[in-house]
TrEMBL record:
Keywords: Toxin. GO terms for molecular function: catalytic activity; toxin activity. InterPro entries: Hemagglutinin_rpt. This is Hemagluttinin. Residues 275-287 have a biased composition (Polar residues).
Length: 302
């Protein structure tokens, strides 16, 4: 944690890395297993007062992993620069439950959640990389102007969140003195969603010397929004999916009616399986509330 009232300047001849850490706790209870991974310590940089300056400068690479950089004073100035690459990446939190009641009844369920970096300034915010700049599920905001500049590529993309369930039950009950019914259910679900990068400011400017790729992300400004690439400008999507399988089987055995007044010994089974797969595309949004939107590419615009 770095905190200042009026001004904070951090310079490194080589790399700057701000990494939020996680911790994992596990618990066993009989045949059951529980596991949780949560955020332990947030890597944070803060400046408080009006007209505050927050400057991070790396001679080589800057890596922000689920970090928080906030310059909260009015008319503040926030500048992050890397001589080579700037990477804003995520950490993953999760929860997993494996529960076994007996050999015929069990449940496994889990979720994962990606958390990206947050950069917020109550004034101008500028990010500069000599080579590549990558934003994965990051939130970048400026009360005034937000500017991203890279000598080579700028990539705005997302990170995956998941939820899964595998539940099995087999129950046998009596349906009369000489017959029984066994019901088996098995439900399996797998959902995958994406959290994209979100950029917003009064004005937003993104420029790449080579390619600019925005997938599943949002770029929004109150006034002018400009995206420019020396080569290709690609505004694309990220894939989200949902897969479900639901099985139900009923098996009757013993004395059963054969129609009329007759009865016979035997078995009867009915099995129903429902399967559904849904794939959607999480699109990108580039827009302005009051101003113009400019998209420029030296080669291809897609």
């Amino acid at each position: 944690l770095l905190q200042a009232t009026d001004s904070l300047l951090a310079m490194a001849g080589r790399d700057i890395s701000l990494t939020t850490t996680t911790r994992t706790a596990q618990r066993d209870a009989g045949q059951n297993h529980f596991e949780r991974t949560s955020i332990d310590s947030v890597a944070g940089v803060y400046v408080q007062n009006d007209q505050g300056r927050l400057v991070l400068q790396a001679g080589r690479d800057m890596n922000l992993t689920a970090a928080t950089v906030v310059n909260q004073g009015k008319d503040s100035l926030t500048q992050l620069s890397a001589g080579r690459d700037m990477t804003l990446s995520t950490v993953t939190t999760s929860a997993q439950d494996n529960i076994t009641w007996d050999k015929n009844n069990r449940l496994s369920q889990g979720v994962t959640q990606s958390t990206g970096s947050t950069l917020a300034g109550n004034g101008d915010v500028t990010l500069t990389a000599g080579r590549d700049m990558t934003s994965q599920a990051a939130s970048l905001s400026a009360q005034k102007g937000l500017a991203l500049m890279a000598g080579h590529d700028v990539t705005l993309t997302g990170a995956q969140n998941t939820s899964s369930l595998d539940e099995y039950h087999k129950v046998t009950g009596s349906s009369g003195m000489l017959s029984k019914t066994t019901t088996t259910t098995h439900d399996v679900t797998d959902r995958r969603t994406m959290t994209g990068s979100e950029l917003n400011g009064d004005t937003v400017s993104i420029s790449a010397g080579h390619n600019l790729n925005a997938t599943g992300s949002s770029v929004a400004g109150d006034n002018r929004v400009s995206l420019a690439a020396g080569n290709n400008l690609n505004i694309g999507t990220l894939t989200e999916s949902n897969r479900e399988t639901h099985l139900k089987q009923e098996k009757k055995s013993g004395l059963m009616s054969s129609g009329g007044v007759g009865f016979s010994m035997g078995s009867q089974s009915l099995k129903v399986t429902d399967t559904a797969t849904d794939t959607t595309q999480k699109g990108s949004t580039v827009g302005s509330v009051h101003g113009d939107v400019s998209l420029q590419a030296g080669n291809r615009l897609t």
